[in-house]
Design a protein that fits this description.
Order of helices and strands of chain A: HHEHHHHHHHHH
Oligomer: heterodimer
Largest sheet of chain B: 2 strands, antiparallel
Number of domains of chain A: 1
Largest interface: A-B, 83 and 80 residues
Number of strands of chain A: 1
Strand content of chain A: under 5%
Largest sheet of chain A: none
Radius of gyration of chain A: 19 Å
Number of strands of chain B: 7
Number of domains of chain B: 3
Helix content of chain B: over 70%
Distance between the termini of chain A: 34 Å
Structural class of chain B: mainly alpha
Radius of gyration of chain B: 27 Å
Chain lengths: 305, 675
């Protein structure tokens, strides 16, 4: 059963996206679309005709499937409600980050494949952001991994070794900045714009339409929820079930929903209260977060907690 | 017993015959093109191909337990005994050299079948043979002769093109490589002085009683000497110039295996001969490795020339290997022998993987060069449609080198991550801090190299052709494709079968650390008990299942809805052309600006006006970055040497009488002071 947990992320991630959008609308004094809107969007896109650029090669057609399956494969590694009891998994948290990297690699290639300035711009910026975010994400995870004596996410979640220590808080804040950057949210990227000068993620997807766009969007929602889940597993894993008994699982599921809600509120608040940074100012934000994560690691090594 | 002994003897004789026969094939192959009847056929290629195939089988057998030992020994002069022997470490390197030389030979058979260039058989065969000799030499004179032969033959291959830039690259290469050789000679002299022998086995036997200072000297001298060959920063300056100048198949060999002989020499000296090390050895290696991998990939990202990108990325990968070697030494000094073996496995695994994917990428770049006559990304584009197979293989290489699952580069970098993270176990606080920081450097490197190869593949192979040459390119010769295909398959196999691969490097690791590597199944790895586990095959399977499910879902929901082809979004101007694409320079510009303290970029924009300031006639932009190491270090040294040489010029006036006078003065000097 625990191997089917990824379905939670697959099926509920559009809902999380809907909730964040609704929260954002409420905070900004709008009514906003219903929380089920992302599902309707996906269905509409799946049913639409598709237009593909003449310049595009097979990379453009393969990319949606690679992106989608890489996110789901990564989701299979992550414990959502129950930790993986048998201890054998196909990869650890480092593998997970690199599996997501494979998806990003193909998405950036697809951006270049249509031979437009927007696509290339999006790819270039996405890779630039990832250069700054990936190491910082790794470092903030390292502290937890060393404390738990394992890089395996299930072990980290059940050991829950470094909670409420200074290094934990530093690593958590760095990780949250990484999540914001990875999900393409303000202040790093603006998910609601197609203005040439500002778009990163949307730039790469500009040539996509119909079912391919639906797959890309769905993968993006799933990746967002996946990143929330990783943050929960590493930094706030209390209540996650180790036995898989029904009662435990119910409590665990309830707590998980609450934690996801907290992250949704956090995202909506950050997006509503901050302005998007200029692209070349990102390096100071992300560089700062890199230093935070490094401090977290060093502090853990020096102080042992 | 009797029977077993006999079998062993026969086996030994047969393997020796096999080795001799392969060597003869290589030598005969060097002269084969002199025979007019076979010059224009494919026959001469058969010699090195068959030779490397047989030696490859032999290397594989040694990796999986065939006993090695002395294979050839001949006393030529009192001080010169040729002596070759094979152990697990040599066998592993023999295997890698063989795979690459086999693929490169097959590739060359296609490459030189059209066009005006001719295959440099003699140099190629001597070069490959000398690399075999380096990794099997078992005493100092043999090693040095093999090392020099390798350096000189590769020098001639670098300057083969005969133009100004390759001559300059060759000069820098030969100067740098001899500086390295000088360090290596001094290192051997130090060892000879302490152990009294020129034989590696005797040195090893005496190593336990070596004074600490000798061990330090050997470490530092071998780091400088072999580090020059391996391209470790700051000794790398020759590499990005020399590797691209050689013919592509030779670049593949140089980047794929020749720089690994530097790794081999370093490992042979510091792991198998001197077995002990203080903690700071490992720390020095991790720091140097981290610096090399970050700077190597940073410079690779700024290059627009595919072959130069690949050359810089070799520096990066050598850095990754040294991260592994460093943590192995760190663990050894702390007494954690199992972890030391793990880190050594990571390093050797990456040696092999880098050979495969870098060889593949250089061959791919060679195909592009052969077809379009350029490797400048700004003049390429859209090649994946015109050269689909080359494109696919280059993509495989790009994914592998970017350390993305399920290909081989990912597994060895993952192992390196694990060993660096486990460095937390070492007793001293400095090691505890340095090892995870090495991990941070590796993470940054991974992200940068992914960006670098999105650029290299995306700009060159995707989008619209940026020049006439690119739009009229044709697919490479089938033999070239076969050469690449073998390496591409090996890249995938190395990723999917990490257990089998780590068993393969186990013999080499045993030579290095005296401990066998971890025990695993063929498809998965388990690290340090429950620390972590990995199964790339399962990752691939999961992704395939997920993608298949997505495909079925799409077919089910969307049905057979129409797909329309149209032009890319052009903002309504109706004439999107290739110049409106993102260029290679633009792609990496953000990083150039973010890391401007490191790159120290300069730009030079010249505008000529028809009518100032509104009507521009033409604009030229020239941007460049500064190579910090060269500016801070090499330029100063070379200018000092130049100034010194200028002063010395007075001594060498070109006057014969003056020179005779020098001889006379020397003679008198010696007659007076000799006794």
């Amino acid at each position: 059963m625990e191997h089917l947990q990824f379905l939670i992320i697959l099926l509920l991630s559009p809902l999380v996206q809907g909730v964040i959008k609704k929260l954002k609308a409420l905070m900004q004094g709008r009514r906003g679309p219903g929380i089920m809107q992302p599902y309707f969007d996906l269905i509409r896109l799946f049913k639409k005709e598709m237009v593909i650029s003449e310049t595009a090669s097979w990379i453009f057609r393969a990319a949606p499937y690679v992106v989608f399956s890489s996110v789901l494969c990564a989701a299979m590694i992550v414990p959502v409600i129950s930790v993986n009891a048998d201890g054998w998994v196909m990869g650890d948290v480092i593998a997970l980050i690199y599996i997501l990297g494979l998806g990003r690699f193909f998405m950036a290639l697809a951006g270049l494949d249509t031979g437009t300035a927007f696509g290339g711009e999006g790819s270039s910026r996405e890779m630039t952001v990832s250069i700054m975010v990936e190491p910082m994400m790794m470092l903030s995870i390292f502290a937890a991994a060393i404390a738990a004596g394992s890089t395996n996410l299930s072990r980290i979640a059940e050991t829950h070794a470094i909670v409420y220590s200074p290094s934990h808080l530093l690593a958590l804040s760095a990780f949250i900045i990484a999540v914001i950057a990875e999900t393409g949210r303000i202040p790093v990227d603006n998910p609601d714009t197609h203005l040439e000068l500002t778009m990163i993620h949307e730039g790469m997807l500009l040539e996509y339409s119909g079912r391919y766009l639906a797959l890309m969007e769905w993968a993006h929602y799933a990746k967002q929820m996946l990143l929330f889940t990783i943050a929960i597993d590493i930094f706030l894993p209390f209540g996650i079930t180790k036995t898989g008994a029904a009662a435990d699982a119910a409590i665990s599921a309830g707590l998980y929903a609450a934690k996801i809600a907290v992250f949704s509120v956090l995202m909506a608040t950050v997006e509503s209260s901050r302005a998007k940074l200029r692209f070349f100012q990102l390096s100071s934000l992300l560089g700062g977060a890199f230093v935070l994560s490094m401090l977290a690691l060093l502090m853990y090594i020096m102080m042992g907690r | 017993m009797e029977c077993g002994y006999k079998i062993e003897k026969v086996l030994k004789m047969n393997t020796q015959l096999l080795i001799y026969f392969s060597v003869i094939l290589f030598i005969a192959g060097a002269f084969a093109p002199l025979v007019p009847a076979i010059r224009s056929t494919k026959l001469p290629y058969l010699f090195p191909a068959a030779g490397s195939f047989m030696l490859g089988v032999y290397g594989l057998a040694v990796c999986f337990g065939l006993p090695g030992g002395s294979v050839a020994r001949a006393e030529v002069l009192p001080f010169l005994t040729y002596s070759f022997s094979v152990d697990g470490l040599s066998g592993f390197f023999i295997l890698i050299i063989s795979v690459l030389s086999f693929c490169a030979t097959v590739y060359c058979a296609g490459y030189y079948s059209s066009g005006s260039e001719r295959m440099p058989f003699a140099l190629f065969n001597i070069f490959v043979l000398s690399m075999y000799a380096v990794v099997t030499a078992s005493n100092v004179p043999t090693f040095l002769i093999a090392w020099e032969t390798m350096s000189l033959s590769s020098y001639f291959l670098v300057t083969l093109r005969g133009d100004d830039s390759s001559a300059k690259a060759g000069l820098l290469y030969i100067v740098m490589t001899h500086i390295g050789t000088a360090f290596i000679m001094v290192m051997f002299l130090v060892l000879y002085k302490s152990t009294g022998s020129m034989e590696f086995s005797a040195m090893k036997a005496a190593s336990a009683s070596l004074p600490a200072n000798t061990v330090y000297a050997v470490f530092l001298l071998s780091l400088a000497g072999f580090g020059t060959k391996a391209g470790l920063i700051p000794l790398h300056t020759w590499l990005p110039r020399a590797h691209p100048a050689a013919p592509s198949a030779v670049s593949a060999l140089m980047s794929g295996v020749m720089i690994k002989t530097g790794i081999y020499g370093f490992v042979r000296m510091n792991f198998t001969i001197t077995g002990s090390s203080p903690e700071w050895f490992g720390i020095v290696l991790i720091v140097l490795g981290g610096v090399s991998c970050i700077f190597g990939v940073l410079y690779a990202y700024m290059e627009q020339d595919i072959k130069r990108v690949l050359a810089y990325s070799s520096i990066e990968n050598v850095g990754i290997i040294f991260l592994g070697l460093g943590s192995s030494m760190l663990f050894r000094s702390g007494g954690f022998y199992a972890l030391s073996a793990l880190a050594a496995t990571a390093a050797m695994y990456h040696v092999m993987n880098h050979a495969f994917f870098k060889g593949l990428l250089f061959l791919g770049a060679g195909s592009v060069l052969h077809s379009t006559h350029t490797v400048n990304m700004e003049r390429l584009g859209g090649l994946v449609k015109l050269m689909p197979w080359t494109g696919l293989f280059f993509l495989v290489g790009s994914i592998s080198i970017s350390a993305l699952p399920p290909f081989n580069g990912f597994v060895s970098e993952w192992l390196t991550f694990q060993s660096l993270l486990l460095g937390f176990n070492s007793p001293s606080i400095i090691a505890k801090i340095i090892a995870p920081l090495g991990g941070a450097a590796l993470a940054l490197t991974g992200a940068l190299s992914a960006a670098c190869f999105v650029k290299a593949f995306g700009i060159s192979f995707l989008g619209k052709p940026r020049s006439q040459e690119a739009s009229s390119s044709v697919e490479a010769h089938p033999l070239m494709l076969i050469g690449m295909a073998i390496l591409a398959v090996l890249c995938l196999a190395g990723g999917l079968m990490p257990g089998a691969a780590s068993d393969m490097v186990a013999a080499a690791v045993f030579q290095m650390t005296g401990t066998a590597a971890m025990s695993t199944g063929w498809h998965s790895l388990f690290i340090a008990g429950t620390f972590s586990s990995l199964s790339p095959a399962l990752i691939l399977l999961t992704m395939l299942v997920m993608a298949g499910a997505a495909l079925i879902f799409v077919l089910f929901v969307s049905g057979r809805r129409k797909i329309r082809q149209s032009c890319s979004w052009d903002c309504g101007i109706k004439s999107l052309d290739h110049r409106m694409q993102y260029s290679a320079a633009a792609f990496s510009k953000p990083i150039k600006l973010i890391f401007k303290r490191i790159y120290l970029p300069s730009r030079d924009v010249r505008i000529s006006y028809l009518l100032k300031p509104l009507f521009v006639r033409s604009m030229t932009y020239r941007g460049s970055i500064t190579q910090v190491v060269e500016k801070m270090f090499y330029e100063k040294i070379t200018s000092r040497i130049g100034a010194f040489a200028e002063k010395m010029k007075a001594l060498q006036a070109g006057n014969l009488n003056l020179y005779l006078g020098y001889i006379l003065a020397t003679l008198i000097f010696l007659l007076i002071f000799w006794t």
